[in-house]
Automatic annotation (TrEMBL):
SUPFAM superfamilies tied to this protein: Guanosine diphospho-D-mannose pyrophosphorylase/mannose-6-phosphate isomerase linker domain, Nucleotide-diphospho-sugar transferases
A Pfam family that the UniProt record links to this protein: NTP_transferase
Gene Ontology BP terms: GDP-mannose biosynthetic process
Record's protein name: Nucleotidyl transferase domain-containing protein
InterPro entries: Mannose-6P_isomerase_type2, NTP_transferase_dom, Nucleotide-diphossugar_trans
Domain Nucleotidyl transferase positions: 2-288
Origin superkingdom: Bacteria
Single annotated GO MF: mannose-1-phosphate guanylyltransferase (GTP) activity
Amino acid sequence: MKAVIFAGGTGTRLWPLSRKKSPKQFEKLIGDKSTLQLAVERLSPEFSYKDIYISTNVLYKDVIRKQLPQIPKENYFLEPEKKDVGPAIALVMGTFYQKFPHEPVAILWSDHLVKEVQLFKKILLVAGDYIEKNPDNIIFIAHKPRYESTNLGYIHIGKKMHTMKKISLFSFEGFKYRPDEATAKKFFKSNTYAWNLGYFVTTPTFIYHSFKRFAPNIYENTQRILAHMGKNDYESVLKKEYKKVESINFDNAILENLDKRDALVMVEDIGWSDIGAWEALKEALERYPYENIIRGKVYLEHVRDSLIYNYDDKKLIVGIDLDEHIIVNTQDVVLIAKKTSVSKIKTLVENFEGTEHEDLI
């Protein structure tokens, strides 16, 4: 079984720590390891390093190889320019289609936190066993909702279809992306909707044939690239052809078009969190509501429900009488915001384009 970890995002909502040159998945958000390193670490030893692949932008090649020297160099997929996830998955699955077309593959992401690691690995292996016997299927890995999130996608689950090693597999009834507050509350109470993690297990053949059927332009573009695999001109052809491919999300290109009968869903509580924004990181790390989450040199009095990260060892952050604040201090920026205002960070950073602050993006 193979595992592919996608690590090409920019993570604007975790600015000022996450920048274009060094996105969030390479930064030490939790302890002394990046979330990318943690994503690889939690697959071991069930997955050998030769079976773990990384898909990212060529800009991040050096930082990833420095953080993950144990991953073979030939296991990197380097996009020559930023596109959406659709073309990236096509390139990976097209390559696998040529090498091991029917072997189960897990698609994972580099910027998540998973606390129940043993259960997570068990789910992947059980899904792999099922796909090995049913190579024309796809299994979505979902999570029991902890609260009524309006920032996450949901999977509609149906009746129980199978049980393997005490893991249940349910029928797949569809997706719902970022519901409004009222709908999220209904989903949370219904027990028939679960958070969509973006994780799935299937075979290269299933996905690559799906591109051929539902996204022929991407498929044909990938075919032109793969025709030069192993040749001296592969890199130049990749750069030339990848520039032409449309930028489209994988969900829109493929998943939303699949026959529901080809999909199953696993729903478990693996202690998963999408730490794509500061308030999400706080929620993931807090042991109880209203706890302060701090890092670095920080001194607080009468402060509650705040996240304060200080990456400057020469400076002490002192907080007094604060409630629900996010404070992040880097070498060149200090961010101070209410926890409820973190969603505005992305727009603020985008507005730096073409200004005197553009170098801070």
